[in-house]
Amino acid sequence: MTDEEQLTATEAAVLAFEGRAWPGPGAKERAIREGLGMAPVRYYQLLNALMDDPRALAHAPGTVNRLRRIRDARRARR
After folding, report:
1. Which CA distances in Å does 24 have to 28, 39, 44, 48, 66?
2. Which Pfam family, any one of them, does this sequence belong to (predicted)?
3. In the chain, count of helices (H) and strands (E)?
4. Per-residue confidence of the chain (78 residues) as pLDDT tens digits?
5. How far is the C-alpha of 12 from the C-alpha of 25, rounded, in Å?
6. Could you tell me if 64 and 51 are in contact, meaning their C-beta atoms sit under 8 angstroms apart?
7. Helix, strand, or coil (residue 2)
């Protein structure tokens, strides 16, 4: 991959956070604030954009495909 095809450090960190299991409510949001230094709202905005980014799919296919399945299932229920 060329430099412009690689994820930024922040984008890679968001995908890594999303791939982890969290012990309970609030733990993930607290870790986002402390570990990434961003508000949870910004985190989820970035995560949603990454779900459709081919660079993210190449970087973390399991995580991205899982998120896409969840999103598609939610859309189908509407």
Report:
1. 8, 18, 18, 22, 20
2. DUF3263
3. 5, 0
4. 555 679 999 999 999 999 998 898 799 999 999 999 999 999 999 999 999 999 999 999 999 999 999 999 999 988
5. 23
6. yes
7. coil
